Structure formats: structure tokens, C-alpha cells
Amino acid sequence: MALAVGMRVLTRALLRPWARGLRAAPGRTGPAAGGGDGVRCFRSPRVLVEPDPAAGVAVVKMRNPPVNSLSLEFLTELLISLEKLENDKTFHGIIITSDCPGIFSAGLDLTEMCGRDPEHYAEYWKAVQEMWLRFYLSNLVVIAAINGISPAGGCLLSLTCDYRVLANNPKYAIGLNETLLGIVAPFWFKDTLVNTIGHRSAERALQLGLLFPPAEALRVGVVDQVVPEDQVQSTARSVMAQWLDIPDHARQLTKILMRKPTADRLLTERDADIENFVRFICKDSIQKSLHAYLEKLKQKKG
Ligand SMILES: CCCCCCCC/C=C\C/C=C/C(=O)SCCNC(=O)CCNC(=O)[C@H](O)C(C)(C)COP(=O)(O)OP(=O)(O)OC[C@H]1O[C@@H](n2cnc3c(N)ncnc32)[C@H](O)[C@@H]1OP(=O)(O)O
From the candidates 70, 108, 156, 159, which is the catalytic residue? Predict the structure, then answer.
């Protein structure tokens, strides 16, 4: 009993600095609430939350068609949903998945980084940082049920999770492919990958901008499990049950101990990181190549 209380106090003390630093999510809007069974359901245009109060789990479905690109509005809605679930004692774990067939997330929204002004770039980058910090340090068990392709920022979102289940479909590649776009994955993207697959594999993957198909993703450790497509959600649920069997405070504290040094690095360099990003993204050469890349994506169709 005394140990449990002590752990709670220690966990709160460790979590508090982040809680303080992370409350100021950009551009919040109010979600509509519903649910008549005492457990609140959270709805927003781009995030569908399906609560399973009996299991203490909520499934968070990303639905920002066509490709779940991480726009400013979408990031904001995701963060609001996460915060609501974290603040509701009913929930101990979330499964994040996609409602867009064949696509988990196409990563950062290129239109947020192209043809805008420096203030917008700064606001957007702050939201991307916030997404990473909040998911990476969430006190909930977070499992990614990856049911589609997941390049760059989509891969980053998966890497913030505690466990990744990928559907075994050769079209569903995952990785930090920024160099293929002529951009550099920021240090905290890199750190997250290194923490997941080790330095050598991360260096190779980052320099070559590798997008791993399922078998390779499993071999290198970008994902923890590859299963037939129709078993992704059920596998995520059974993995979740295993994680939720661990005493919550011990697990949360261990998560923070493992992730604190990585998160601290961004927290102490957050403003400089925003300035670097804005300087980089405002360069003519970068704008031209992002613009050309977007055009190429559009022309692909017709
Ligand atoms: C010195 C250090 C300083 C530090 C500076 C750091 C700078 C680094 C900054 C950031 C890191 C970047 C991270 C990222 O995540 S960048 C985004 C990377 N993502 C991609 O490259 C994926 C691009 N998309 C695709 O490959 C495909 O769309 C697909 C495979 C996901 C899906 O293919 P398909 O189903 O065929 O759909 P379409 O290609 O037809 O796309 C439909 C529609 O969606 C638009 N779109 C696609 N991806 C994005 C995106 N990421 N952002 C915005 N819009 C996107 C696409 O253009 C189509 O639009 P439409 O023609 O108008 O319908």
C-alpha cells in the first residue's frame, strides 16, 4: 500500500514538468461530447473515438481523408482527443488506427509547409512537436494498429506508441523517408527511430530514406508484429490486454524513465528547433522542391 502511494507521488512528480510544458496546445477547439452510459464519447470531424469502458480502452480512428495527412487542424483534434482520454480515469490504453482505407497516415501535411508565411510554419511546427511530446509521454498504453502506408510523419506517430502492429500487405510500407524529399528528419524524429531500432539500422534507414515493407519492418524492429490485415485490430486488443495487466504506476514510471532523456532534449531546445525549422522551410530551394513534390503527387492521378 505504502509502496503504491509512494509510486503515485513519484510518478506525479516526474510527470508534472511535462504536464506544465504541454498544456498550451495550439489552436484548441471544443470537441462535442456525448454518451449516456457515464463514459464520455469524444467526437470531432477528423477523429473518431470508440470507447470500450469495460476494457478501459478506447480506439482512436484517424479520419482525415484522403490520406490522413497531419494538418494543423487534424493534429489539434488528435491532441484534444488524447487529453480527454488521459483525463478520464476510465481509460488506461488507446489503440490508434486509421479510418482511411490503405493509408495509416501520409505524414506531415505538405500544404502546411509550402507557400505559407513564417508565422504559420512556426505554429505548425509547434503543433507537430506537441503531437510527438504528448503521444511519446502519454501515461496511457498507446498501441498503433497500422492498417496502411505510413511514411515520414506517419511513421513518427507510430514510433511514439508503446507497441506497433502492422497489417501484412506489401503496399503498406513504413519509415522515415524524408531524405527522398530532400529534407532532413529533425533530431527528435531521428532519436525516436534510434530508440526503436538502434543506431546502425537507424542511420542506414534515415540516410537512404527507407520505407520498409512489412517483413523488413518486422526484421529491423520498426514494428513489433506483422499480422494478416483482418487481424490487426484484434491483435492490438490482445496485446493491449497484456500491457494493461502490468500495474499502471510501475509501467508509467518505467515508460517515463526510458523516454525522459529523449523528450528532455526537445523540451530544452524547443524554440531553437522551431527557428531552425522555419529558417529551413523558408529557403527557396526547399520551397521549390516541396512544391514540385506536391505537383508530382497531384499529376500522378491524371
Ligand atoms: C538543418 C535541420 C533543420 C530541420 C528542418 C526539418 C525539416 C524537415 C521537416 C519535416 C519532416 C517531414 C515529415 C513528413 O511527414 S513530410 C510528408 C511525407 N509524406 C509523403 O511523402 C507521402 C506523400 N504521399 C504519398 O506518397 C501518397 O499520397 C500516398 C502513398 C500516401 C497515398 O497515395 P494515393 O492513395 O495514390 O493518394 P494520392 O497520392 O493521389 O494523394 C491523394 C491526395 O492527397 C494529397 N497528399 C498526399 N500526401 C500528402 C501530404 N503528406 N500532405 C498533403 N497532401 C498530401 C495528394 O496531393 C492528393 O491531393 P489531390 O490531388 O489534391 O487530391
Answer: 108
CA of 247 to the centre of ligand 1 (A): 40
Q: Is 35 a catalytic residue?
A: no
Helices within the chain (DSSP H only): 2-22, 72-87, 118-136, 153-159, 187-197, 199-208, 214-220, 232-244, 248-268, 270-281, 284-299
Name the CA radius of gyration of the chain, rounded. 19
pLDDT in tens, 34-55: 344 455 566 789 999 999 999 9
Quick check: 6 and 12 in contact, CB under 8 A? no
Domains and CATH numbers, the chain: 43-300 (3.90.226.10)
Q: pTM of the full predicted structure?
A: 0.90
Residues 86-136 have pLDDT tens digits of 999 999 999 999 999 999 999 999 999 999 999 999 999 999 999 999 999
Q: Are strands 93-98 and 57-62 parallel, antiparallel or unpaired?
A: parallel
CB 167 within 8 A of CB 227: yes
Q: How confident is the model at residue 11 (pLDDT cuts 50, 70, 90)?
A: very low
Residue 166 catalytic?
no
**Would you say the CB of residue 184 lies under 6 angstroms from ligand 1?**
yes
Task: Identify the bridge partners of residue 57 per DSSP, sorted by sequence position.
Answer: 52, 93
